[in-house]
Amino acid sequence: MTRPLPKPFLGIMHDWSLVDPQRPGWGHVDAWMWWTPRQVNPARGQYNWSVVDSYIDAARAQGKQVALSLVPLTGAPHGDGTPDWVYQLNGIVPWEGRSNSGYSYKYPRWNDDHGIWDPWFWELIAAFGQRYDGDPRVHSVWIATLLYGESVTTVPGGGELGHNPIRFVDNCLDRYHAAFPHTPLIPLLTGNSDRLRLCHKAWSLGMAAGFNGLCGDANNQVQHKPTEGAGLMQIGHAAVAQGLPMKWEHAYNGVSQGETMAAIAAFLANGGTVLDLPGRGAPDDPHLDTLAAIPGLWEWTWQMMQVPVTQRGVWFARNTKNPGGVDQPGVLADWEHGYPGPWEAHITTNATCYAPNSAEWKAAPQALTSTLEGYLGLGRCEEGLEITLDLPAGEYAVQAILAKDDDPGWQMLNVQSLVTSPGTIRYAAPCWVHRVTAIPAATEEPGEPDPPEEPGEHETALAAKVEALAADVAASRAQAEQAGEALATLHTDLAALTDKVATMLDTVAALNQDQATHEGKLADLEQDLQGLGSRIVYLESLLREDLRAKIEDIRDLLGEV
Description:
- The structure is a single chain.
- It is built from 13 helices and 20 strands.
- The chain is an alpha/beta fold.
- It has helices at residues 37-40, 50-60, 84-87, 117-132, 165-179, 195-204, 232-241, 257-269, 287-292, 297-306, 359-363, 366-369, 457-560, and strands at 9-13, 30-35, 66-70, 95-98, 104-107, 138-143, 185-187, 210-214, 222-223, 246-250, 272-277, 313-316, 335-336, 343-345, 347-349, 352-354, 378-381, 385-404, 407-427, 431-440.
- A hairpin with a 2-residue loop joins strand 18 (385-404) and strand 19.
């Protein structure tokens, strides 16, 4: 059976027990949550899945999907999630290293030469799969391996996780593949080490690769050496070319609107299917509320995610590139840093892009540069906007966010109600442009979400009916159990009766056979009796003739006398 690939998922990491469903930012958002092995495997052979189940149930109560992870190494220097009882087996200890800045750190004893840690972890993954594989409440399982649960081998402060950590990642892919045949799997392969090969292995196992790095100029987006094509965006494009989904995660610590918009733009332009944004849970984290204040952003993002990658077109104004080189401290010479030009997928324009804080950008109207739409950069069209679509043949709805020279404010413009692709369309007036999007014409236009209804008598009555139905289900289950016991007894009695009937049939068969024999003998006897009767009749006739003769003789004698 082929494992299903992950469907669209707009998620954020948080605690569902703190969610207020009435807050406007939570409409389309699902959730990712992780636990350490220490939390779910407190003793040998014992598993505490209740912490996971309670989270899933809380999310399910609000109609939300969840993504799950077990994270063995949350961070350095003290992020080893191995339960203490594992290290007490035969006296093994964690692996240990020292950073360039001087602090010591410990990490799980993968590739254990004692043959204890790895067998325990594989057993834990198998139990994890036995519990949640195929669970309809679970959108996907995100495979966590090294530092932060990602395939990161470099320790903050300078230092490496030793003992061949990439071999451990390889083994994890195989073990999760066996444990979750019916659930989408997404390994977190952000680390630089052997990333391209690990992605190809994940794809061969029916998994979707997961990266972070959603920002304007991540330093690992494009790579030319030592492994050509191993940059984050390059691998993302390779996945899209194969029709495979991609999971992307933010790459920033703040909650600003601009950073979030940059992440969403990079996500959509690089074929994203699963999007993970930062958050630590309501009500303390205002991140989702901040996003909800951007008119239509959540609805538009979710709508674009529902369209297959091959059928959605996006173009975002930006023109930044952070060139790498040995002359820049802290920059890897092996990378071509940043991503030049606009974000674009299946759409190109004639706009000239200006990067934020460039001279041209600063010279633009402040009403444009001070807003969300100006965060990524500005596109300038002196002769009017020209949009070229390179999407599969068909009709598309094309929308642009632009500003006219005589009205310096961003506005949404439906360029044409129906646009045929491939093809080019034009908006004649000089303008600034922020983004252009295209989706199949049959897809509904994005709109504001309906306001949530306040709970009333109908909801209360419905809740009461649900409780009553739950009670009926429980009673029916009890009756079904009793009926099952009675049915088992009936099956035993039926088996005994079947044996008796078989014996009786054998007896009847024997009797029938004896009766046939007796009937044959009776027929012979009747034939003999018939012969005897004939003989008697014959003898009687002879006797009568003899007697008649003697009587005649006597008469003759008497006559003579």
